[in-house]
Write a structure and sequence with these properties.
The strands form 2 sheets. Strands 2, 4, 5, 6, 9, 10 and 11 form a 7-stranded mixed beta sheet that branches. Strand 7 (67-72) and strand 8 form a beta hairpin. The chain has strands at 2-7, 10-13, 18-26, 30-39, 46-51, 57-59, 67-72, 77-82, 91-102, 105-110, 114-119. The radius of gyration is 14 Å and the shape is elongated. It is 0% helix and 62% strand. The protein starts with a strand and ends with a strand. With 120 residues, it is mostly beta strands.
Length: 120
Amino acid sequence: QVQLVESGGGLVQAGESLRLSCAASGSIYTIATMGWYRQAPGKQRESVAIINSNGNTHYADSVKGRFTISRDNAKNTVYLQMNSLKPEDTAVYYCNARVATMPAKFSTFWGQGTLVTVSS
């Protein structure tokens, strides 16, 4: 199958930056979209940023201008550069990928999550 492994979370102060990484491995034929979601305590999981195989991106309004998503297709890796972090960005961040393990057979996979804590 496919595994997504995230890294880069941690504790920072408001205004600082963090970079998250997520590497996909396993039986990968091709990857369509990759993205980052987050879930704060007591809230539903929400989409943060998505990038497709052509590099087209979509961001949640709350992170536009502060976060940048990118991907390295050769490494099956997606990144999330988070600048000007705010306490309300505190959440567990999950990597998501739409992966084909064989031609035209796509499934959605999730990482285990990485905690980002922003102190005021």
